[in-house]
User: What shape does this take?
Amino acid sequence: MQETVEPITPESFSDQARRLPLPETVDTKSLRWPYLLGVVGFHLAALLALSPALFRWSSVLACCVGIYVFGTLGVNLCYHRLLTHRGFKCSRQLEHFFAILGVCCLQDTPAHWVAVHRMHHQHSDEQPDPHSPLVNFLWGHMAWLWTENSKLNRLSMFEAYVKDLLRDRFYVWLERNFTWISINLLQWGFFFIIGAITGWCATGHTGEAMRAGASMLVWGVFARTVIVWHITWSVNSVTHMWGYRSYETQESSRNNWIVALLSNGEGWHNNHHAQPRAASHGHQWWEFDVTFQTIRLLSALGLARDIVLPVAPANATVPVAADPAQPL
Ligand SMILES: [Zn+2]
Ligand SMILES: [Zn+2]
Assistant: This one.
C-alpha cells in the first residue's frame, strides 16, 4: 500500500514529527555487497586498535592528525565546499591534491560523492533524498550506503549532477579501473612502512618494526577511516534530526554543536542548507568552523580566492537553489 507523504512546510520540521517513506527507487531486497562488506570489514579492522599489543602513542597521533588532514581537508574542504558547492577557488593542482586526500577517506570517488550530495540538496528530506533520516536514523546514517537504489546508478547520476566535474580528466581517471581503490591500498602500504621505520629506528628489532607498522596501519588508516565515516554520516543523520534552526528552510536541517565540533564545522547544517554556496557554515560569531578557518588561512597564503561568504542575516527565510546542473 502506498504510504501518504505529507506536504512540506517549515512547520513540518518544528516538531520533528514528519516521516518519509524510502525512496521509490530503493530495492530493500537487493544489497550492494562491496559496500556492506567494506563497512563491516573496516569496523572489525578498526576494533584491532583496542588491542594493547597495537597501542602506540605515535599511531594515536597519526589517527588524530589524519582526521583533520584527510577528513577535514579531503572531505569537508574539497569534496564538499570546493567541488560540490564551489564556495571558493584554488589552483587545479591544489584541488587535485585535496581530492586525493578525500579519496583516502574511502567515501567513494569525488564525482560520486558530489553527485549524491547535490541530489541531497535538490531533494532534501523529500522522498528521492538518498539519505534522509526522516525514513529512520539508521537509514540516513549508513544503511542507504549498502541498499540498492537505482537512482544512484553511476552513469545516470553523473549525467544529471556532475558534468561540470567530469570535464576535468583527473576525475574521470579516478573513476576508471578502480583507481580510487588502488590509491586507498597505496595508503595502507604508506602507513605500514612509516610505522615500521619508526619501530625499527626505536628498537632495531624486526619484530617490533612489524608490530609498529601494524599499529600505524590500524590506527592511522582503519580507525581513522571509521571515525571520519561516522563524522560525515552524522552530518547526514544527526543534523537533520536534532539541533536548532536559524533559518526556516524547506527541509529538516539543524545546527548541532556537537556534530559541528566533531566535524570541524559541518554540523552548522541548517546554515549550510540556507546558503549552500557559502564557504563558511558558521553564521554566528560562536559557531566556530575549523574548515572555514582553514580556507581563510589558504587565502592568506595566496592559495585560495573568490571565497563565497554568507549574505543573509540569521532568522531569514532563504530559498534553496534546486538546479542540479549548478553547484548548490
Ligand atoms: Zn543536509
Ligand atoms: Zn552541501
In short: Residues 53-136+158-305 form one domain.
